[in-house]
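Write out this protein's structure.
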Amino acid sequence: MNIKEFGQNFFGPLLSQYLKSVFEGSNEGHLYYCLAREGHFIQAAISELKKQGLLDTTIDSRYLIVSRVFMFKILLGAPESWQFSLSPKFEGNLQTLLAHRFNLSQTIIDSILSEAEQTTDINLPEDIDTVKAVFLKHHNELSSVVSGAKIAYLAYLEYKGFGVDDIEHNVLDIGYSGTIQKLLTLLTSTSTTGHYFIASKPGTHVVAGNNVQMHGVFKEGVKLGDGHVMLDRSLFLESLLTAPSAQLVDLRINPLAPDNEEKFEFFYGMRANCQKQFYLLQELMSGAIEHVVHCFKYDIEYSNDDLDNLYEQYVSKPNMIPHGVRHLFEIDDAISGNATISYQQLFQL
């Protein structure tokens, strides 16, 4: 099996059935934002379907550059955001937390926190109140150091129409807790509807007085460790469904650039193998998108059981995946303060 065939067989059915579910029914007056690195190929598939005349060309879908780390950073001055940024697991000291999860430089950390504060050992989410107390103590300084990036990102969102048009805002992503969706709602005071592969807590949540609706296409109400393979081994999806750039960590506006998307200067973190050899990933995903087109053209459907069984075969048996693409299964784990997670770790080899 070559790389393109692997993309057709492994990812094509998942992506096809996901998009079929998202776009069933009327889409008039809706905006669709394909989020973060995962949104790159979701947007590419949507564009190809429209090009082939298999999806309504009036559907307005837009790729939105965003990341959890960046949203955590620009909302450091908003205590309402800390429930999201401090809930993922972390073990280390406060300096490492601010450097990895919020992408603050050592110079900035030194200017705000004392050495004693920086070296405070924490274990999240158990020590969330301890961290919140430090953040509250330095609230004004933290707000100040992220204000430039926050202003720049609000300008970018306005440019992309997010929170501007009085129409329904939909976000498309793999899942699972909807953190980016909730933070976008918090930042812009815009109600949103999220369409995910899996939604751990589906339904309507209220964030800063606005509704955040979450829907899982393949599964709802499951958590990591519950035994649902597509969630427990979801990093296989995230490592392939990615953009050529690593995760967004900073943003500035270039006042000398033209008044279009070129004026936004994006800065990205460490690249994994899938970004370093993106040409291989493009070949793989071209096969997946070809299969999406085929399924839409001939009205081919997959049941959730079909997709679960297919996914489990690939991610539980390393020999099912061609040697030439195994190294692409690598993803950074900055949120937890770790380096990249490799395919050996994913396969538990």
